[in-house]
Specification:
78% helix, mainly alpha, 24 helices, globular
């Protein structure tokens, strides 16, 4: 049986490799191999486990979910449907203070239903929404904060890559986790909109002194209503097909991803995508999803090693043996997620911690579905915090040519209110887990 000292040494070696810059997949593989060898003392057993885990992982049907959902989002992004919907929302909110910021949040929420990656949302709306907000005199930091902050919705509103990874790591139903993210995602959207609306009322200079409410946006007004409705209807069809199909048991998540990718392709062709655009989308998804799938193979081996070596039980005993209340133990986990979020990306954080934290939360009596949403919120918030802040750097890169004078610090400052709101949403779900568990409980 593994003692606590050896268990902690194994985790420390993994964190050391990551800190030294070793690729997370290689670090997971090396640590797993070390753990298996320490238990068995046989290199042949290590080699056999490496081979069998890789084979079983790659042939798993659920692994196709990630590239298919990413392909769906890529088709819709390249079709221009997101831009049309954003401009339609913008037109409909003309009498509302801070309408462009609110339109950015609502546009991101809608886009989140068809893409599983926050970075895609950040890059898209940096190019679509930011120029509009600057044209009407928005404060640069406030405008870019709205883009970066609302892009976090991409990982909470399904389909989400983080939700898929969490489901694979914990062997939970991906469909249930998808449905669990809907109400928290809408809650977060409402809180973001409320923040922008109140800021526009109390500090109108941040939104161009109210100019954006009264000015005529000729480009938006001249956009044909039929174009907006086609894009909006197409996205609604995808959302209801995917989530509705999962909810009513018509599709598995993998089948829903395939159906969504096909409908996204049809919408893209209707919107003018050509053969070259389709091929570029497929290649782009391949370049993005292949590293994620490699990480998941390494994570599968890591999870099996934790179970085999007794590391999970040792760390679980360590946490539970502190005598702290369940809430304080969850707070400790969240702090770990916050700290890791400052230096590494969200999927890597999930691969490192979820196989350990999820069993502890279940032992403490927390609902695994609600805990999944809390964990995703905590991990996602790290994308807004310095010094790493992947979403912030994505936004900076997207607007570099158009506005090179904007500093990273400005974007971080503009994003902080959204980080605080995410923290508030996390507290609400911990206090009222029904926010996350209600829709999954209705699943057919």
């Amino acid at each position: 049986m593994f003692d606590h000292t050896t268990a902690l040494a194994l985790i420390a070696s993994l964190l050391l490799l990551v800190a030294l810059g070793v690729h997370i997949a290689i670090a997971l593989g090396m640590t797993s191999a070390l753990g298996i060898y320490l238990v068995t003392g046989d290199l042949q057993v290590v080699a056999n486990m490496l081979g069998s885990t890789a084979y079983e992982s790659l042939r798993d049907y659920v692994f196709a979910v990630i590239p298919l959902f990413m392909l769906m989002g890529e088709f819709i992004g390249k079709s221009g449907a997101v831009t049309d919907v954003y401009r339609g929302i913008n037109r409909g909110l003309k009498r509302l203070p801070g309408r462009l910021g609110i339109a950015t949040v609502l546009g991101n929420a809608i886009f989140s239903f068809v893409t599983g990656v926050s970075i895609a949302s950040a890059a898209t709306f940096s190019r679509v929404a930011y120029p509009e907000m600057r044209r009407f005199g928005y404060n640069k930091g406030f405008a870019l904060g709205a883009v970066a902050g609302s892009s976090c919705l991409g990982m909470l509103i399904p389909p989400s890559v983080l939700m898929i990874v969490w489901g694979i790591l914990t062997e939970q139903s991906i469909g249930q986790i998808f449905l669990a993210g809907v109400l928290p995602g809408l809650l977060l959207t409402f809180l973001f909109v409320g923040y922008i609306f109140i800021t526009a009322l109390l500090r109108p200079a941040m939104v161009g002194g109210g100019i954006d409410r009264q000015a005529k946006d000729d480009d938006t007004d001249n956009l044909p209503l039929s174009t907006i409705l086609t894009s909006f209807f197409g996205i609604l069809v995808i959302v209801f097909s995917v989530l509705g199909g999962i909810w009513f048991g018509v599709f598995t998540p993998t089948e829903a991803a395939g159906a969504g990718a096909f409908i996204g392709l049809v919408l893209g062709i209707i919107k003018g995508m050509r053969y070259k655009d389709i091929i570029e989308s497929i290649l782009s998804v391949g370049r993005t999803s292949a590293p994620i799938l490699l990480l998941l193979v390494a994570a599968s081996l890591y999870s099996r090693t934790l179970a085999m070596t007794g590391v999970t039980s040792a760390i679980q005993d360590l946490f539970l043996g502190t005598g702290l209340s369940p809430l304080l133990i969850i707070v400790m986990m969240v702090i770990v997620w916050f700290l890791l979020g400052m230096v590494i990306d969200s999927i890597s954080i999930m691969l490192l911690t979820v196989p350990i934290f999820a069993p502890i939360a279940m032992e403490l009596g927390y609902d695994p579905i609600a805990f999944a949403i809390v964990g995703i919120l905590a991990i996602e918030s790290g994308l807004l915090t310095p010094p790493f802040g992947l979403l912030v750097y994505t936004v900076k890169a997207a607007i570099q040519e158009e506005d090179p004078d904007v500093s990273i610090i400005d974007i971080f400052k503009g994003s902080m209110p959204y980080w605080i709101i995410i923290l508030l949403a996390m507290i609400l779900i911990l206090e009222f887990p029904q926010i996350a568990t209600y829709l999954p409980s209705l699943m057919f």
